Every structure is written in structure tokens, then in C-alpha cells.
Amino acid sequence: MADQAGDPLFHSHDPIFNRKELLHVGHVPDEDRIVGRDDEIESVAAEVGAITRGDPPNNVMIYGKTGTGKSLISRHVATRAQDAARTNEIDCGVLYVDCSEANTETRATRQLALSLKEQTEYQEGIPVRGVGTMEYYQHIWQILESCFDAIIVILDEIDKLDNSNILMQLSRAREAQKTDAYIGVIGISNKVKYRETLDERIDSSFGHRELFFHPYDASQLREIMRNREDAFQPEVLEDGTIELCAALAAKKHGDARKAIEILKEAGELARRTGSETVSEDHIQQAQEVAEINRIEELTSGATVHAKLALYALASRIITGDRETYKTREVYERYAGICELVATDPITENGLYRQLKEQAFLGVIESEKTGGGRSQGSYLLHRLVTDPKHIVKAVRRDSSLEELPTYGRLSGTESSSRAHDADLSSFT
Ligand SMILES: Nc1ncnc2c1ncn2[C@@H]1O[C@H](COP(=O)(O)OP(=O)(O)O)[C@@H](O)[C@H]1O
Ligand SMILES: [Mg+2]
After folding, report:
1. Candidate from 158, 159, 257 with most ligand 1 atoms within 8 A of CB, to mutate
2. Are 117 and 141 a contacting pair, CB within 8 Å?
3. Are residues 331 and 355 both part of a single domain?
4. Ligand 1 close to Cβ of residue 71 (< 6 A)
5. For the segment 305-344, what is each residue's pLDDT rounded down to a tens digit?
6. What range does the domain containing 284 cover?
7. Distance between CA atoms of 226 and 239, rounded to whole angstroms?
8. CA of 111 to the centre of ligand 2 (A)
């Protein structure tokens, strides 16, 4: 099996990964690799399962934080229902729509129509542009009519859809005699808040049950990762790496996606640096990279001033001896930093509003504090993440990469010392 003839530029043997695909986010693991979701699997199956007996299904909405297995369990149950239906000679289609991408009714119906066509012998062409929602519905009903007894439609991240009309259309289709096929919808949302608006958005024709997926604890996260250890070559994962990875993800609300991502990133890091094993150190570094990516994503839509305000708070925390600072204190540092990057500062009030927006993003926590009778109340800001990560994330903005790397304050490099000196002159 050895590749004597291969070009040595492209190693055919990956020293770290064996089956890396097991660590891809969209990968749907086999049933025996799914951990701690038996009740959830049964609950989803109970709602849509009638389809497998040729009876009408219930619609179901699944709520829960990211990485709690909502997408995985929905796909898993839908596929099993499809198989079970087949043994009863019922043609059941499964359709998956990621509404964070297909975020309008037109896009979502287009994707439904196109994937239905893909699963069948449907001959008619379906235009990808230039036609409206109504035409896509027509194709959907026609395909259902001619090819299916039932379908399960998974609408993932449904809160990203600009309207909920698709829910109404799908749930009324039989009543409106568009099709005889039974349609079961599984809606998924990370936002429990969506639940409140859903009732206002839809009428009673979309009857549905609700399920809540809870975060995993550290031992479940360990097992989830152990079940994918064969993504790595034997003996590559050092002792304690999975435990550490699980502990880090458990702190972040028990997010299995985060855990798997960190594990994968740690493997890539090991490979890049030519290491033969994945160590706890690689896990720590990978976790930092993941956190910086997350902050960058959260702040990607923010203004330069909001980013500078975040940076100012981070730099105060790094160089100071407190965890919380008043708006005024953040503003002083911010104004100095603006000078450094040759940007005109906005007013203190403007900055105050931007900080409040950041609080909404979950990067800063701001708390109102009574300053005693004569002083009135003021806001105290704290970061909900490591300030060094904020610094790194903000510096990724190409217009802000000149900012000093305070994260290296404790380092010995002379350049960072020079930056310390810059810093003290700000305040
Ligand atoms: N119970 C579980 N057992 C095994 N893997 C899981 C489990 N729950 C989630 N995962 C994995 O974690 C990642 C995130 O899960 P996902 O279903 O996408 O979460 P959500 O949709 O709730 O954000 C996926 O790679 C998934 O395979
Ligand atoms: Mg998901």
C-alpha cells in the first residue's frame, strides 16, 4: 500500500488525522456515536413518526443553544423515518433548508423545489432566478403530487427567515388541496425568544409541539469526542486532551460544536507545526483561536468606533488592576487610541451608545451602579471574555492592525515594551 511513486510534495499519509471528516460540522454521525439524546430522538420521532404509518404528522419546533445537537437529531430522525416509511412502502422525502442562507421565502422555496427535483424524476425545469415564490410553490406541489406520499421538511435556523409564510403554506397545503402528501415540519431555532414572536407571526393552522434541547455537561462532551477519536491516527491524541477540550466547551454553555471545532483546530495546529501528537497546549491555543474567531464574527458588523471602544476597555483591563471601568474611563483611553490611529473620536455620549450595543452582542456586560447620592448613577463595563482575545480580534480589522498588541504585555519582546510606553501616555 505504500506509495513509492507518489510526489513527495504531497504526502499521502496524514500523520495527525485518520478520518478528518468525522470532525466536520455538517457530518451526521452514526447512531452509536450519538450521546445522551435518546429522549430527544424519541420526542422528535413521536411528532413526525406518524408519517411512517401513513398518518398525518405533527409539526415540531426545537429550541436550544448552539451545539446542543438540534440539527443533528433532526436529520437523524428524519432519515430514520424515511427508512421506516420505505419498509411500509411509503415514499417519504426529507428536505433540509438552512434558513441562515436561504433567508427569504423565495430562496427557501427555491431550495425546496430544487432539492425535491433532485430526489425525483421530475422533468420540468425550475428556473433559479427571475421567478417568484408562487412559481416555486407550484413546482413543489407538483412534485409532491406525483412522487411522494409524505415529506419531512427541516427548516434550520428558522428565525433567520424574513417571514413565516412558508410555515402557513406548508401546513395548509392539504386543506387547500395543493397536494395529498402529508407534510411534517421540523423548525429549529437557537433563539428561545423567537418562540414569542412565532405565535404572533403564524395562525393556528401551523399547530406545533415544542421541544427544548439542553446543553451537554462535561462528561457528555467527553463521550461525544471519544466517539470520534478515530478521526485521529492512533496514539496521536495525548492523555488529557479530550478532558481539557470538554472542560473548556462545558464552560461555554456545553456546546458540542465548539468542542469538536477546538479538537479539529488543535489537530491542524499540531500538523502545521510538525508535531507528532496533539497536546493540551494545542488545545489551549486552538481554544484561543476559536474565541478570537467568535469575537471577530460578533463584531464584524460593528463600526470602527465600537471596535475601538472594545479595544479601549480591553487595554484598560490588561494594564489596570480592575475588571470594570466607567464609560468616562473607557472614553479617555479610546480618545488616546483614536489619536494613535489618526481617527476622529466620536463624543462620549456616542461612545456610550456604542458600548450599549456591544453589551447586546454579548461581548461586554454593562451594569448600572449607584455612585452615592451626590454622584448619581453610572455604568460600569466589563468584558465577558479574555481582553487579550478582544485585542487580537480587533487587530484583525485591516484598518486597525497598527494597534499595539497589548496581549503580549507580559512578553519580553522589545516591540511590545515600546507599545507599553505608548500606552501610558494615553491616560
Ligand atoms: N449528542 C451528540 N452526539 C454526538 N455528536 C453530537 C451530539 N450533539 C451534537 N453533536 C455534534 O456537535 C456538532 C454540533 O451539533 P448540531 O446538531 O449542529 O448543534 P445545533 O444544531 O444545536 O447547533 C455537530 O458536529 C454534531 O455532530
Ligand atoms: Mg444547527
Report:
1. 257
2. no
3. yes
4. yes
5. 999 999 999 999 999 999 999 999 999 999 999 998 888 9
6. 216-297
7. 12
8. 18
